[in-house]
Description:
459 residues, alpha/beta, Amidase signature (AS) enzymes, eleven-stranded mixed β-sheet, two-stranded antiparallel sheet, 15% strand, globular
Amino acid sequence: xxxxxxxxxxxxxxxxxxxxxxxxxxxxxxxxxxxxxxxxxxxxxxxxxxxxxxxxxxxxxxxxxxxxxxxxxxxxxxxxxxxxxxxxxxxxxxxxxxxxxxxxxxxxxxxxxxxxxxxxxxxxxxxxxxxxxxxxxxxxxxxxxxxxxxxxxxxxxxxxxxxxxxxxxxxxxxxxxxxxxxxxxxxxxxxxxxxxxxxxxxxxxxxxxxxxxxxxxxxxxxxxxxxxxxxxxxxxxxxxxxxxxxxxxxxxxxxxxxxxxxxxxxxxxxxxxxxxxxxxxxxxxxxxxxxxxxxxxxxxxxxxxxxxxxxxxxxxxxxxxxxxxxxxxxxxxxxxxxxxxxxxxxxxxxxxxxxxxxxxxxxxxxxxxxxxxxxxxxxxxxxxxxxxxxxxxxxxxxxxxxxxxxxxxxxxxxxxxxxxxxxxxxxxxxxxxxxxxxxxxxxxxxxxxxxxxxxxxxx
Length: 459
């Protein structure tokens, strides 16, 4: 019997190749877990029964001696803002009730070409606005380690599905930490790639200069395999970039950010001790650890919550009941958080306030990126906490937006600078998973994967 909690993509591929399990049997195992757990966790909004048909086609190919494709037969979950042709997509909002995708997202198409099977679409904060998936119009996702706690957000459904063995892997989207933070809360690996390395075509936009699709998986190796399958230049995405990987150095210097190691409001001191533990482990493996400074990082939250709402107000203007979405009403309108950010974004872009707010935020964003550029002249990779604490209780912060926004304290700078970062599970606090985040220079994903595989051995 296959232990889904320990199953990796490489192992699943080998099992399929050796016919220890069929693709249909693998899908049946995950559907059984979904049947048993989704009612309490609320990770999936819809499961795709045609996954069995896809699995049967793969089994026939294997029976006929065909070579398996790169991800053939691997069961995936997709966040509900990534388009799958012919499937419903709602971005966690009732305003898109009944909308059917007319084309595949670039990442979806790449997974299809690689032979992946889609199990269903996962719950999320409405239009990816949130840090807990409590802003979904379809109810919150619960943490598989404690049903009274959040799974994180906005990709909470995808992270929960992988952590609860309801999918072998998943795709999410990350605008300010929405892959990494829920991955940390749920004890899985989450990668936010370099901005532009994976096309945003077919991703329902939140903030276009910050959004990035990425994988959620059980291991760094699995995340690497998925990234390689879905990256690449796309003529439909003008922001896409196709660059070779950075060469790996023999001697790697790891930076610990001074501004992130001093504690502060809303930060659990035990999280900082986990970083100290990770540093000791890497020091024991003969890596050099160096403290570095990012002086502009203190302005990241304020900068983000001007730039992101501004782009949100522009992107969500299309949901006017004419072009997209149902007419706005009490039943089908935007939720509270979406309205809050649309109003804020419209304000900072309005005449008389643009220079005072959006213009200044754009300059601060440039300073933050410059700080990272300077730091990466001193060190090769950075290590930080993923979140200020473990998963918080459902309802604990939903009425306090500022407290909720602090959940993204450590992740937002990466999006502002367009850097790649990966969260890895590293220990627990009160039996709840916590994550360590690695941040690499632009197009340094290969360094993230190398260091991620080393850190995984610390446990």
